Amino acid sequence: MGLPMAVREIVAWVMTALFGVVGAFCLVSVLDAGISAPPQKVAIFAAGITVTGVVVLEAALALFFPRRSGAPPDERERLIVARAGHWAGLAFLFGVLPALGHYAVNGNGNIMFNVIVLSLFASGVAEYGSQIILFRR
Asked: Is 4 helix (H, G, I), strand (E, B) or coil?
């Protein structure tokens, strides 16, 4: 019995959920403290949760789909991952450039840190969300 979707698409769904939920939690924490507040411990914790989630996902894939998880991507998958990575880079740049500009003008590293961390989560959602869209086309 075959899978209803490719392993890389399953990864994209899980990663979109992971980046979305953890990023939303981080966003609420930053907004609650104020965008100019010092870096929140939650932001550092969120990064750790994300890394742990990625490791657990990779281990689960290797356990449940040993042949498919280690298989090299086919031509279609390579194009999808490349295009989604490009869009994620643009999303990250959309947050980072204003944060760096604000720091250059105002010297507030707290705002820069908070915006860059939130941009990282947004770019993760953009990357894996766009992979889902491209896999579904």
From this structure: coil
